[in-house]
Amino acid sequence: MLALLTAGASAAAAIVYLAHKGNVRANWFAICQQFDSFCERISGSLIGSFAAMVLLIMLIFLSAFALARHH
Fold first, then answer.
1. How many domains are contained in the chain?
2. Domain range spanning residue 20?
């Protein structure tokens, strides 16, 4: 689950970067000037994805410590 969440967060980071900066070589223009609400929402979901990654890592460590303490 952590690998899937990390892959999703990485893909979202790439989309946020393209939305903010664009890519001149691929002829993709930055769209944040035209669609401010899209960029705000996708940036918020990126923060949520990375927060979920941190919470999942903490949950994994807590579970590992709980299992190690019982054995």
1. 1
2. 1-70
Residue 26 CA to residue 1 CA, distance in Å, equals 33
- What distance in Å separates the CA atoms of residue 38 and residue 32, rounded to the nearest whole number? 7
Place of tokens 């705000």: 40
Per 3-state DSSP, the chain is made up of helix, strand and coil in percentages (nearest 5) of 75, 5, 20
At 26 the pLDDT is 81
Measured distance CA(32)–CA(12) in Å, rounded: 15
Report the first-to-last Cα separation within the chain, whole angstroms. Answer: 25
In 1-71, the DSSP E strands lie at none
pTM for this prediction: 0.76
